[in-house]
Amino acid sequence: MSDQPERKQINFTIVPDEQTGEPRIYANFCSISHTPFDFTLTFCEVMPLSDDELRRAENQHVVKAPVRARVVVPVQFIPNLVAALQEHMRVFSESYSNVGWTKGPVH
User: Fold this and answer.
1) Residue ranges covered by each domain of the chain
2) Is the pTM of this model over 0.90?
């Protein structure tokens, strides 16, 4: 016999605790990078460019956007995140197919 106590399986649902009062953060661009251990999702807000910014972007091929949030998640988290995003995208597409929404980039 093992000296380890018997493990009991408990099923539960995790829900966000919205009591913290943290503000909602808007981002319309996400840069993704990874290491062998985790993925980093860097969320930015890209605003329309002024004429000067557009000229600079044409010359430098770079547009700087302010980082709104950076989230690091373990590799094991990614398959469930991808599956959840695909399911929500499917439901969204079915729900809003009549309002003229099309797939493609926002910009």
Assistant:
1) 24-97
2) no
